[in-house]
Amino acid sequence: MSNKVSIKDIAKIANVSIATVSNVINGTGRVSADTKNKVNKVIQELQFVPSASARSLKDKNSHLIAVVVPFVEKGILQDNPFYWELVRGVENGARNHEVQVILLGIDEHEDFSFVRGRHLDGLIVVGVYEQSPAYRKILSLGVPCVFLDSYLSDPALYQVDLDDEAGGYLGTKHLIGLGHRAIAVLTGRLEQGGVNYFRYQGYLRALRESGIPENPDLVLEIDSSIQGGYQAAQRLGHHKDGITGVFAFSDVSAMGLIRGMHDIGMRVPEDVSVVGFDDIFYTQYMIPSLTTIRQDIVSKGQAAVTMLLDQINGTATTSRRVTVPVSLIVRQSTNSFRKI
Amino acid sequence: MSNKVSIKDIAKIANVSIATVSNVINGTGRVSADTKNKVNKVIQELQFVPSASARSLKDKNSHLIAVVVPFVEKGILQDNPFYWELVRGVENGARNHEVQVILLGIDEHEDFSFVRGRHLDGLIVVGVYEQSPAYRKILSLGVPCVFLDSYLSDPALYQVDLDDEAGGYLGTKHLIGLGHRAIAVLTGRLEQGGVNYFRYQGYLRALRESGIPENPDLVLEIDSSIQGGYQAAQRLGHHKDGITGVFAFSDVSAMGLIRGMHDIGMRVPEDVSVVGFDDIFYTQYMIPSLTTIRQDIVSKGQAAVTMLLDQINGTATTSRRVTVPVSLIVRQSTNSFRKI
DNA sequence: CTGAAAGCGCTTACAG
DNA sequence: CTGAAAGCGCTTACAG
Questions:
Q1: Which domain holds residue A233?
Q2: Per-residue pLDDT tens for A168-178?
Q3: Of A186, A214, A334, nearest to A267 (Cα)?
Q4: How close B4 comes to chain A (CA, Å)?
Q5: The HTH lacI-type domain covers which part of the protein (chains A, B) (predicted)?
Q6: How many domains does chain A have?
Q7: Which of B81, B141, B287 sits opposite A81 (nearest CB)?
């Protein structure tokens, strides 16, 4: 019995036309107060809820957006609470605008056909690159998009990015300030123009500023995961260059790294200082707590929704590019070089 | 231009009726191979995708399900990677069945009206209780549901639960086996028939079995969060009963606890042994790594989807209640009592 | 201020 | 094997 009642039923009972019912519901047209009350009462009584499908069949918009998150394993979203926080932010931003959020984990075979099939109003896309197969497909959809952490060069695209270069700089500078000179980097895929690329640029700038020559041996391109970080510890531990500082470009990898260090008998921060990136919820509870680059992930998600809806509604007065600031949070995982 | 092409356009170009096009798309009716090919070719060329709204307007089903996750802060989903893993599992299960997943974070005011409005095929509901305001509302929707971690007594309900009692028992037994007798419990809301309730029952059973009298002072009902665990450490540290073992009913609270212990100078596991619950992705990378009760969260999510779709499609031969097993994972956070 | 009618893009009997 | 037609539940000009 639940879904049977339609605008027609309301019209019949309230003794008006369906057009009037529609007008009442949408606040469109001119309807007398009396009629309005009468109709609203019936709507109340029958607990009427308009059909979204019928609406979007007419309107062409669905009040549905999707968050697109890249895959790692076939069909499985990244094992990183970072994404959860981001998605939370999006969901939270959307609920204030009566829009629902579809969660879409993509792999390289995703064809996005359901985006058109469902008349999605827009997409929030996380972490694609210009070279990603998904990138062209998404653009060809002709649907409003906001890209998160994607660093696409096309200035026409709406993007919310982090000031990654500054993050890379700040973390490195911090280590240098503590006296470290052999500073390794744990980075995810180092693609031109990608997130990690900019963090790395910041790292290089800090080195340059302090006259420290860059050393390619110190750059470890790893899986940006907890396992990736763990494995990196082995490589760093036996490194010829006497590394005393490591900058991991994600907190999850930093966590793996610290554990890995611990297992080969290197102490953090006594032997090696470690800086992370993201400021995931657990960083301050780690032992040692993690010095890291903070970004406000939830509000980033919210910003993306706002931007997307502005774009959809044509109220896009905001600029097409928002860069979220970062800050350094100093905790216990970093220490002065050779301090005893 | 993207969304303009409809079944009508295909029909015109292919020189057939729209009914035939529809039959080709759905594999219904009888269509000659020739016609089929012709139509399919046109569909290919025009990149035609059927409109989901038009379909669900007829069919009454939308191929859309929602994952309903309880709020903590107003509109903000729980700060616990557990939910992320669960949602991942659901998303993953759904994508294999051409169903999309809407993410819905609810607070006590949620009225679920969009469930009917959108003709959602079903709901996967996480962690409600019989007393939850959401519970009655959801039932009155008359929509297929699968409840996760909800322990509802109505046998007609489809549920995927964990063997929490066994989990509580196993963890406690493990501590007792190591010689601990003053074993505290860190539990979230201890509602009759809720997740924590059963874990607690398991704890009591283990105590009873070993002739250890239960001590209400040792049961700390806390916020099941990392902060909650942290704060609990203060209380436990100065506890009069000389606690040597703690069983935290979630890994996040265990993490907070261990850090809290550390901060007041109690070593884990030397002074206190700690057991967690969930086996979140980071547990084995903690220092010390966490002894915990493992559940396969992702496959739990997948099981829920399967169950839901079986129910929707009327192929529900499976029983209405699935209980996922747990196991004890022994790591470094537990140690023999007074071992030196 | 109110209503009749067309049409959004499909599916589904029903003829032929 | 194929097509004409009705109808799902809305919204939107257009009359009146």
A1: 164-295
A2: 999 999 999 99
A3: A334
A4: 10
A5: 5-59
A6: 3
A7: B81
